[in-house]
Amino acid sequence: MKLIRTKGRGARHAEEMLASLEQRGGAALDAVLPAVKRIVADVRRRGDRALLRYASQFDGLAGSSFLRVTQQEMSAAWEALDPALGEALSTAAEQIRGFAVRQLPESWSDSQLDGLTTGQLVRSLGSVGCYVPSGRHPLPSTLLMTAIPAQVAGVKRIVVVSPKPAPETLAAAHLLGITEFYRLGGAHAVAALAYGTASIQRVDKIVGPGNLYVTAAKRLVAFDCAIDMLAGPTEIVVTSERGNAADIASDLVAQAEHDPEALAIFITTRLDLAKEVIAEAKLRSRDNSVAREALDRNGLAIVAANVDQAQQMTNRLAPEHLTVDAATDLDWVQNAGSVFVGRWSAQPMGDYISGPNHTLPTGGMARVRGGLSVNDFVKLITVQQYSAQGVRTLGPQAALLAQAEGLTGHAEAIRVRLHNRRPRG
User: Fold this and answer.
1) What's residue 26's pLDDT?
2) Tell me: the pLDDT tens digits for 213-271?
3) Using CA atoms, how far apart are residues 349 and 330, in angstroms rounded to an integer?
4) Which of 127, 141, 202, 390 has a CB 3.0–4.6 Å from the CB of 157, allowing a cystine?
């Protein structure tokens, strides 16, 4: 980890570094985009022929008969699972489901003006594709985090794709009652979900994190198939004045072990605490090669001039994960994917079992959205119903606005009702 100070000689360098971090995110995708474009176009044009070729090349799939995971395989994986792990998955599922239920928006109808009723209908999407990575580590938790909110929303068709899925992931699918699961990954999986092939019917929306190829493919298909967000490498920021160095360092190492490109930042006004955290992080990542590489590349301890500056820098970074000292800090937090409050709120608890989703915005996108939620799987349809009295009350002003915009047809559609006559032919 590098130590950076925002005052004195280091002020200019700190500002340049912060400005650069604000622009993080999209550049890495450009390097893989040409290859991804070819794959996506090929699957879109040739369907299963291209899909199965890429599945054989990249996913090690032996043939089309192995493409779809059977329910018997998922059931067998659950039966073979260590009972303690099965109980942990069940507890996590209950927590995630309970949180999603509380998030679910409601349909409503209201009439505050005589003759006009307005409201909204909450309707689920018809189908979604859940991408579950299985590269460096099996991620059954991601299956829970993507599929459960879709179930709570009422999505009828939930498709899971995962390259070389681990037994734990298959077991989690059985736990949730998933019926459509394919051994697919990468850009070709995204293309199949977006455009459909003979083997896989297209979906309305694709959710879930993935590597650069997956993320680039999601960006390419986003105008044809809805996506949740473009997820990049994991990010953690801890902003603390009184935290425990061992706690802070352990969270930094925990998130850094996801990816050599992970971003791990500690922000404080205390030089002594910054140095302690750096030493602890070095010690705790000693036997964790991925975390050590990430901390060497992208680990920072920033010593701010004052608390206000520390808070402003945190919001400018808009981190995926943010840890703060106390609940009172929530008042200044504006941009973060998910916030962890106090020393006992270890960030990995949120990765697995707290309930809030761990699929979170990266690359500064926490400026404009939060994490994946049940709201990503529903649409809000607005409703309005007028009576004759309602049109008489609001119609003249609406017609006046239409006339001001030069839309005479709009105005006439209102006035024909006001005068209760047909427009002249």
Assistant:
1) 65
2) 999 999 999 999 999 999 889 999 999 999 999 999 999 999 999 989 999 999 999 99
3) 19
4) 127
pLDDT at residue 422 in the model: 53
Name residue 160's amino acid.
V
**pLDDT by residue (tens digit) across 177-206?**
999 999 999 999 999 999 999 999 999 999
Q: Alpha-carbon distance 97 to 151, whole Å?
A: 9
Rounded CA separation 14/9 (Å): 9
Phi, psi of 358 (to 5 degrees): -95, 0
Whether 174 is catalytic is no
Question: Closest Cα to residue 95, out of 359, 350, 374, 378?
Answer: 350
Single-letter residue type at 326: A
pLDDT tens profile 133-150 = 987 778 999 999 999 999
Q: Residue 113 is encoded by which pair of tokens?
A: 């003006």
Q: Which two tokens stand for residue 63?
A: 């043939």
Q: Buried b vs exposed e over 167-177: b needs ≥16 C-beta within 10 Å?
A: bbbbbbbbbbe
Which CATH class for the 29-106+124-231 domain?
A: alpha beta
Amino acid type, 258: H
Catalytic residue among 321, 358, 410, 419: 321
Cα–Cα distance for residue pair 398/393, rounded to 1 Å: 10
- CATH of region 2-25+232-355: 3.40.50.1980
> What gap in Å lies between CA 93 and CA 102, rounded to an integer?
14
pLDDT, averaged per 10 consecutive residues of the chain (425 residues), comes to 90 89 78 94 96 93 87 98 97 98 97 95 98 87 98 98 95 98 96 97 96 94 96 94 96 95 96 98 96 96 97 97 98 98 96 96 94 97 97 97 97 93 50
Label the pairing between strands 116-124 and 378-386: antiparallel
Known catalytic residue: 405? no
Helix residue ranges, H only, 177-336: 186-195, 212-221, 245-256, 271-284, 289-298, 307-317
Task: For residue 33, give the 3-state DSSP assignment.
Answer: helix
Partner residues linked to 158 by β-bridges: 128
Q: How far is the CA of 118 from the CAs of 37, 382, 416, in angstroms?
A: 44, 7, 22
Q: What type of residue sits at position 120?
A: Q
Q: How far, in Å, CA of 201 to CA of 128, rounded?
A: 11
Using alpha carbons only, what angle is made at residue 327 by residues 291 and 20, rounded to the nearest 5 degrees?
Answer: 45
The domain locations on the chain are 2-25+232-355, 29-106+124-231, 387-425
Beta bridge partners of 339: 322
Choice among 168, 320, 358, 419 that is catalytic? 320
